Amino acid sequence: MCGIIGCVTKGNCYRYLISSLEKLEYRGYDSAGIAVLSEAGLAIRKKKGGVKNLFGEELSGRAGIGHTRWATHGAPSDANAHPHVCGKFALVHNGIVENYAKLREELSAAGETFLSETDSEVIVKLIARSYTGNFFAAVSSACSRLEGSYAIAVLCEDFPEEIVCAKYKSPLIAGASSSALFVCSDVPALSGEAEYIAAAEDGEFIHIRGGEIDFCDGAGRRIGKKFSKVTETSLGGRRRCATYMEEEIFEIPRALEDTLAWLNAADFAPCARAMRQAKKVFAVACGTAYHAALLFKDIVEKEVRIPVLCHTSSEFRYRDPLVEEGDLVVAVSQSGETADTLEAARLARERGGFVLAVTNVSCSSLSSLADFTVVMRAGPEIAVAATKSYNCQLLCLYYIAAQLCFYKKTQMPAYMPELASLPEAARASFKTFPAMDMLAEKLRGAQSMYFLGRDRDVRTAAEGALKVKEIAYVFAEGYAAGELKHGTLALVERGFPVIAVSTRADLAKKTENALEEVKSRGAYTVLLSQYGFMEESCADFKCKLPSVSEPLMPVISVIPLQYFACRMCLLRGYDPDKPRNLAKSVTVE
Ligand code: M6R
Fold first, then answer.
1. pLDDT at residue 98 above 50?
2. What are the catalytic residues?
3. N or C: more exposed end of the chain, with fewer CB within 10 A?
């Protein structure tokens, strides 16, 4: 959940460290720090709070490491910020050392004193104690003692232009340009800097030395690695909105276009056998991606008529899931680094499932462990709240459902030719934003709210509620409209906001009935639909959605809700890009 960066540059490394850390801040923003190595030794600057707290006089040196933290062990503080130092070594770490308590006890008994409450500090102590002049061997030996997950980058004063890094279950990318060599947690941190990148696998080390960057095994033997050219759009300089979240909402049409282009050019032949054979399908994901997975279940069960078992990844492995040889397992993750989803995918593979990943990051850990990857081309998503990646996940999942139909020789879904109209419909959905501005203004003081829907609109309701909770800090729940009477109606009182999404014509009346029920208990009712509203509609506030083929409406109807949540957040004085307690990639269980 933290972000790490390391670089050895031809000039001073300070600028690279700061600019990469700013791009990595979405991974955590409790505290930040850098270590710069020069002939004079290590210079450390670390502070509680965001990367901007590191601004100041340049630290000078050609090799450096940096960190932006999402606290797991120890509160956000200057002392708990990385890098951690022991003797000649400085270290940054992303992950969790699960056996840190035992190691700390052992190191304390051996006379070490700890300056922080973090699990990470044990690693640098282990390295310093293993060191007998061979930097790489000391890092490798320390790693052999660790349980849990780690991506680390280490500096040693005896080797002024070297960095040794290791990876296990936390992401680590190597990057290269003519002026610098890098390691970092994520590709976007290197946008505009690295020209070539390669991802490390679990158990691999990266060694920057002598102007070269090598992948090695634990014994220091080189591993051949193919670097690929960076294609992700640069993150800098494109901002037309005050926040990434707003910008990313406005990018939805373009993201859908690019994703559609990728899908239309993709060759699904490697999935043919798995798709033909699959008698049942699994879908695993977390958070927003889980809502996309639920919609996938709806689509596949309707169009392909085979069962889809949808699990939150965090529960999957503890349930002895029914995955068998030949099952198709679709793992959905924007980042491709969510630890729970990775574990779910690993387990599914162990049991003989064919893992099809849907991710936004082509060189992610999920992609490297999957049998086949569908890459959404949403472009880097920086705001912690997922927006454009959700719309693109849905598009990919509609497409995958159609591939299943194709390989199973069932009738192709009627929505297929309509997929091309989604980018335009997304653009048209922006016309709802003035109405959403008004609604956010009206509801800015709300303490809680319900989102309702039926059938596929339940997924949209759940996603709308998640967005409002996550960034506006308003308690919200998304329900099936028919469930109201079974308990939740009890909470409705005067002024309680209830927002209904109604995109299925044949169910519109039923959804309106639910609104009637809450309105008669004093609720403030809101209705979003692509259809004209009935004269007698009970909604206090109506918003007309643009129209696409009915089954595809979830890709579009969620957009006003994403925007509404963002406006609520801003009106309430919060930062939508960095909601409290959260990080973009949840790389720990
Ligand atoms: O990178 P992933 O798609 O695997 O992330 C999964 C969730 O952590 C993520 O969707 C989260 O729920 C979002 N912040 C919600 O906006």
1. yes
2. 2, 584
3. C
